[in-house]
Design a protein that fits this description.
heterodimer; A: about 120 residues; globular; B: six-stranded mixed β-sheet; about 0% helix
Chain lengths: ~120, ~110
């Protein structure tokens, strides 16, 4: 069974540009989560999508946004990139959370570097 | 007070010993508790989850949960050098979806 897949693996941008990160969940998983892992800050929750809807959002500015498609894949968009956005962006997926607490499984991440 | 705190590391144990990793959380409404292992440069890998008070065993790993004390731990028996990694404790409340992570404990198992 394929795990969570993310693309691209690495992304290099300059300040002010926009970045798009992509995620495909494990087959059968309907919930997708995005996390940021920056040096020294640990894993921080960004967004949760389920059935195409944004269900929860972490303490990040509005220039971090995303969406979930009908096939449950997801995009994370970061506008007006700043140097501090340099981090590993991790996508996770889980079974439908409405049926109870479900473990989240992570992809390999996209490393975003801002020059 | 941090939402999720893990015992400060790094933790170093000899091969074959028991490694004990601890975690406390502040939100009494927390419902689910997870342990992830993260090797350097890699993504977190789920190794254990526990929802109810008590112990849960899976191979060499045992997770322990005490909701009254807001405490969760992970024991690794017969530690191997391949267990050397950062161990992340995470908690969640179902309706929020998100995982809240501790800062991680670096474990080194030396031969």
């Amino acid at each position: 069974e394929a795990g969570v897949t993310q693309s691209p693996t690495h992304l290099i941008k300059t300040r002010g540009q926009q970045a798009t990160l992509r995620c495909s969940p494990i087959s059968g998983h309907t919930s997708v989560y995005w996390y940021q892992q920056a040096l020294g800050l640990g894993l921080q929750f960004l967004l949760w999508y389920d059935e195409g809807e944004e269900r929860n959002r972490g303490n990040f500015p509005p220039r971090f946004s995303g969406r979930q498609f009908p096939n449950y894949s997801s995009e994370l968009n970061v506008n007006a990139l700043e140097l501090e956005d340099s981090a590993l962006y991790l996508c996770a997926s889980s079974l439908e959370i409405g049926t109870g607490n479900q473990p989240q499984h992570f992809g390999d991440g996209t490393r975003l570097s801002i020059l | 007070q941090k939402e999720v705190e893990q015992n400060s590391g790094p933790l170093s144990v000899p091969e074959g010993a028991i490694a004990s990793l601890n975690c406390t959380y502040s939100d009494r409404g927390s419902q689910s508790f997870f342990w992830y292992r993260q090797y350097s440069g890699k993504s977190p890998e789920l190794i254990m989850f526990i929802y109810s008070n008590g112990d849960k065993e899976d191979g060499r790993f045992t997770a322990q949960l005490n909701k009254a004390s807001q405490y969760v731990s992970l024991l690794i028996r017969d530690s191997q050098p391949s267990d050397s990694a950062t161990y992340l404790c995470a908690v969640s409340i179902t309706s929020y979806g998100k995982l809240t992570f501790g800062q991680g404990t670096i474990l080194t198992v030396h031969p």
